[in-house]
Amino acid sequence: xxxxxxxxxxxxxxxxxxxxxxxxxxxxxxxxxxxxxxxxxxxxxxxxxxxxxxxxxxxxxxxxxxxxxxxxxxxxxxxxxxxxxxxxxxxxxxxxxxxxxxxxxxxxxxxxxxxxxxxxxxxxxxxxxxxxxxxxxxxxxxxxxxxxxxxxxxxxxxxxxxxxxxxxxxxxxxxxxxxxxxxxxxxxxxxxxxxxxxxxxxxxxxxxxxxxxxxxxxxxxxxxxxxxxxxxxxxxxxxxxxxxxxxxxxxxxxxxxxxxxxxxxxxxxxxxxxxxxxxxxxxxxxxxxxxxxxxxxxxxxxxxxxxxxxxxxxxxxxxxxxxxxxxxxxxxxxxxxxxxxx
Length: 342
Description:
Elements: H1 10-32, E1 35-39, H2 45-63, H3 67-72, H4 76-79, H5 83-96, E2 100-111, E3 117-124, E4 137-144, E5 147-157, E6 162-171, E7 174-184, E8 186-187, E9 190-191, H6 192-204, H7 208-222, E10 228-229, H8 231-243, E11 255-259, E12 262-274, E13 277-285, H9 292-309, H10 313-316, E14 319-325, E15 331-337
Helix pairs in contact: 6-7, 7-8
């Protein structure tokens, strides 16, 4: 995007004092850098009501497929490159039509000064001695110009439960569309907590690769926008680091896998839901995918080598999808059910 309960003991008094001091330090640091954040209960009612009413109005437009109207209500930079949002609206319209949307949370992010911030970090709510609390959130947004921004998160009760988050920017007296994030609240019929519980179960069995992938899915489902973190997602991140395998691609790092005498550079690996099945996607770098017969053979060889090297994947996923990706971004994918991988 361009966008204290009264303490009853001396020890508890000391802890609360330290927690309050930590909170003050965090808030002062944010203010000193020209960044402030207000949660829904902390902002002026008129501002909160305007942000929420605007988000619900834009949701109604999305549910009706009114792409042109959404574009007319977007900030200039977004309106000039609206293809991504238009595609997201089209992809979700059927699911949103007739659905009920309710407000989960609203935040007001303010950037002061004259220059865009290379890394704007907003600390929202109350923080404690150890960082985030159940009532806090952190937003980190790169290259953010000065201005007032709103983030309103909606829960959409539909056939496929979803979240829809709007980033809004104040232009004059209006709140204009600056970001549109539609995300499923479930994958393969399961919410984030299910994946978190499952990750801990397979971790206890020593299946660290499956655990890491399940933690990844849990964190993704519990974060309505990719630039937001909460106490829950921070804890998941910490658990992920403890099991992150060095032999799987992560955090932009690639790994190599030999299959059929050829070395493949794996670039990404992540779960994906297909109906009620949970599959595993593995992407790898390819010079050219125009020869579909050859690429299919390479995809199959890669899948078999991957599952052969890491048999725990059979327990974690119904199928494996290999996608060969050219430097241009063009790709070619092949899926094999795990039960058919010999």
